[in-house]
Amino acid sequence: MVYPKYPDSFWSFKNAMRFISKKATVPPLGLITVASMLPEKWEKKLVDLNVAKLKTSDILWADYVFISAMSIQRESANMVIEECVRNERRMVAGGPLFTQDYEHFPQIDHFVLNEAEITLPPFLKDLAENRPLQRVYNTVDYADLTRTPVADYSLLSMKDYVTMNLQVTRGCPFACDFCEITTLLGHKVRIKKTSQVLADLDALYRLNWRGPVLIVDDNFIGNRKVVKNSLLPAMNKWMKEHRYPFAFETQCSINLADDPEMLALMVATGFKSTFIGIETPDVVSLDECHKMQNNNRDLLQSVQKIQSAGMQVSGGFIVGFDSDVPSIFQRQIDFIQQSGIVSAMVGILHAPKNTALYKRMAGENRLVHESSGNNTDASMNFIPKMNASELLEGYRHVIDGIYAIKPYYQRVRQFLLTYRPIDEVKSKLRMSDFKSFFKLIYVIGIRNKGRREFWKLFVWTLIRKPLLFKDAIQYAVYGYHFRIVYGIK
Q1: DSSP states of 337-385 as a string?
Q2: pLDDT tens, 397-454?
Q3: Quick check: is 211 in a domain?
Q4: Model confidence pLDDT, tens digit, residues 25-57
Q5: Which value, to the nearest 10 degrees, does the dihedral of the CA atoms of residues 124, 130, 135, 140 take?
Q6: 327 and 236, same domain (yes or no)
Q7: Which helix (H) or strand (E) holds 79?
Q8: 469 lies in which domain range?
């Protein structure tokens, strides 16, 4: 089982991991979940190219090479495919990249597309019964997640990852026109049984994982009733019984701010941060992309409600909507700075394949090429209404306006003033942090150009927010990574 490499990007945090001696942020959850669906007698090996090199001996060892990837991993996936062809090994491919674009990979022997709970069993049955294997195993149906097994975390070199991950739901009730989630997984939110989620936690705990756990759902609160009334109380009880071994991160829609009771329960359970698609402060653009859950509300106030309840917010932002005018760039900067959203992923609008936006752009003959899958690489895959040069210049203005040294550290302080963590999940320094701490002091506090602002934050936090010192230091490291990724000096 081979997982291709990610390029250095906003979410790779490659430049931050040097301080903590890790190689990748998260493991390939899809592949290790598929591993649990394979026959027990099969010998399985995982090579994640983000933490290890793929050797010829690995390929020759295998009867089949299973590959899963997202669009952003296309270049690395092609290299894996070339190696398998060179060594005459049969390939089975799945995951978002191949599900959306399998016709562009003629070298692949077999595709197990969409959700493996449905499409993998027919492949395995044909193989077991020595029947001719189809090239494409596909479906228009959606999987029953109550049949999804616990991922085979034992295949991982867990010490190489910053975070472990698990999945609770698939699908999203909303209809943002640029989002490929509903194209792949539908509008109906399907959810695992509470006992399954607790089994995932048990598996990680038995393997001695302690620390961050990313719940990879595209909208964790998509089925609010089940999450609030069943899942969260059970997770809360489990965490108390196990003395809070994990700190959860996830993705939610902005309407989390409308339910103080659920928000408080999430924080008490150990949820430390959530990613939210803010997109834009412009209501016309929100209407244009059908982001209705963000409209008719004070977005800034909603973000601050979540922060003040004890949860950090990272956010997604987009420029390049048809309705955008040049003033949008400064409006984005102002909103991000005022919100205290430290990790703000700003991208130029892309039209991923098969989305409503993609179909509209195709109908208007505005498509230029397929999306790169990297929404922060300043590329455009369709002709924008705004002059392209003006859009690129404005995008760069936003990036400089939020990730240049001074405004970035100002935003960190703004966040720390709003953030109110509760006792159970408040950041604490441990002995294992000291090696990383002194390394970052040398790199960021002595060698780096932003050292003056770093020391101002250092002293300010010790005086004003000493309990959040670890968070402040973590965000200093993030800023270092973001400046390198965006080429800010």
Answers
A1: HHHT-SSEEEEE----TTSHHHHHHHHTT-B-S---S-TTS---SB--S
A2: 999 999 999 999 999 999 999 998 876 444 455 655 778 888 999 999 999 889 999 9
A3: yes
A4: 999 999 999 999 999 999 999 999 999 999 999
A5: -40
A6: yes
A7: helix 74-86
A8: 423-485
